[in-house]
């Protein structure tokens, strides 16, 4: 009786592990389905749209300009962001108006190390990283025109098929 | 005759069943739990590859311990190279987000590591393609933590998270 239950439990566990691994391989190497939330990709992708992902292009490194990709957020690796690729390595991209731009924050903290420490004024400002409407970041490995923080495409990205709309040149947020 | 055919079919069925169980489980294990890798290059001398070109160290890479992106200062980690996503590089974590550190040969002398990023350096300063070259890297590029050296046998050891005292951050967020 007891051995019966034990046997059944082990079989259940075995099946769970097996199907879990198959699901992991399918999602990791082939593709899957996710729900996108947030207004930053409107009107291409609306809030709560369901998109189909394709992981094969990522594994073959064939992401092109204009593709919509999903990547790990540079400032929070546990969350993902869904954006369009504007430029790849070697491309020069222009930022748009200052209200739409985010640069890396850098400052020299200690002007005088002998006891008196005075933070100098920050040379660049962080803006809008919390405002979802303004966060239209570009994901690429370009020669950044201003030497600001480079955000490499993390390898944890996939892409969904670009929709029918014409490619809109989004403002670069970098 | 019919029996031989039946046997053949049963073997094929058993083989396919085994195949579809073993391959996903192994792939998932190597992707998510642990794998093994050979270290190339001299950027982590003397901790890894002290012998130079003769014998490369083989390390155990642990994916499971970084599933929540929790690393300590001094850990040896492997990450996707920011210059070439097809390559992995293995370096030591020097600073975490919020730390202010003094750099060696970077364009800015002092850097505050931004949120969600880390600063990695090879132990062999000057011969290492690390954060002193490309700046802070996002935690999203973390691949695994190197926990043990498995080969050569005389170098079997557990890799400890050791931060050289001259590379300690000047100010950490916790202080």
TrEMBL record, chain A:
Its main location: mitochondrion. The keyword Hydrolase applies. GO terms for biological process: protein processing involved in protein targeting to mitochondrion; signal peptide processing. Keywords: Hydrolase, Membrane, Mitochondrion, Mitochondrion inner membrane, Protease. It is found in: Mitochondrion inner membrane. Residues 117-131 have a biased composition (Polar residues). This is Mitochondrial inner membrane protease subunit. It comes from Alligator sinensis (Chinese alligator).
TrEMBL record, chain B:
This is Mitochondrial inner membrane protease subunit 2. Coiled coil: none annotated. Belongs to the peptidase S26 family. IMP2 subfamily. Keywords: Hydrolase, Membrane, Mitochondrion, Mitochondrion inner membrane, Protease, Transmembrane, Transmembrane helix. PROSITE patterns: SPASE_I_3. Pfam families: Peptidase_S26. One of its GO terms (molecular function) is serine-type endopeptidase activity. Residues 14-102, 107-151 form the Peptidase S26 domain. It is a single-pass membrane protein. It is found in: Mitochondrion inner membrane. Heterodimer of 2 subunits, IMMPL1 and IMMPL2. GO terms for cellular component: mitochondrial inner membrane peptidase complex. The gene is IMMP2L. The active site is at residues 43, 91. InterPro entries: IMP2, LexA/Signal_pep-like_sf, Pept_S26A_signal_pept_1, Pept_S26A_signal_pept_1_CS, Peptidase_S26. One of its GO terms (biological process) is signal peptide processing.
């Amino acid at each position: 009786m007891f051995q019966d239950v034990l046997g059944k439990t082990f079989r259940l566990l075995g099946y769970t592990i097996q199907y879990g691994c198959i699901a992991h391989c399918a999602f990791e190497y082939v593709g899957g389905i996710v729900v996108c939330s947030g207004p930053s990709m409107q009107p291409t992708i609306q809030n709560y749209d369901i998109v189909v992902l394709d992981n094969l292009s990522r594994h073959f490194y064939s992401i092109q300009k204009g593709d919509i990709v999903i990547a790990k957020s540079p400032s929070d690796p546990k969350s993902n962001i869904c954006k369009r690729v504007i430029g790849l390595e070697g491309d020069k991209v222009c930022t748009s108006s200052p209200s739409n731009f985010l640069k890396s924050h850098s400052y020299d903290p200690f002007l005088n190390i002998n006891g008196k420490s005075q933070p100098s004024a920050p040379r660049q400002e962080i803006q809008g990283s919390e405002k979802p409407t303004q966060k239209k970041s570009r994901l690429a490995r370009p020669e950044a025109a201003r030497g600001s923080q480079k955000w490499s495409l993390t390898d944890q990205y996939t892409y969904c098929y670009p929709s029918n709309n014409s490619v809109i040149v989004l403002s670069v947020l970098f | 005759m019919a029996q031989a055919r039946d046997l053949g079919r049963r073997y094929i069925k058993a083989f396919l069943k085994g195949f579809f169980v073993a391959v996903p489980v192994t792939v998932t294990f190597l992707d998510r739990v642990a794998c093994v890798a050979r270290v190339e290059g001299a950027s982590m001398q003397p901790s890894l590859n002290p012998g130079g070109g003769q014998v490369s160290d083989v390390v155990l890479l642990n994916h499971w311990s970084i599933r929540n992106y929790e690393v300590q200062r001094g850990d040896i980690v492997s990450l996707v190279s920011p210059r070439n996503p097809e390559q992995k590089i293995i370096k030591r974590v020097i600073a975490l987000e919020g730390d202010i550190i003094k750099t060696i040969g970077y364009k800015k002398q002092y850097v505050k590591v931004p949120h969600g990023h880390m600063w990695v350096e090879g132990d062999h300063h000057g011969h290492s393609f690390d954060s002193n070259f490309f700046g802070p890297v996002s935690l999203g590029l973390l691949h695994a933590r190197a926990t043990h050296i498995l080969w050569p046998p005389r170098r079997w050891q557990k890799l400890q998270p050791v931060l050289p005292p001259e590379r300690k951050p000047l100010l950490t967020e916790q202080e």
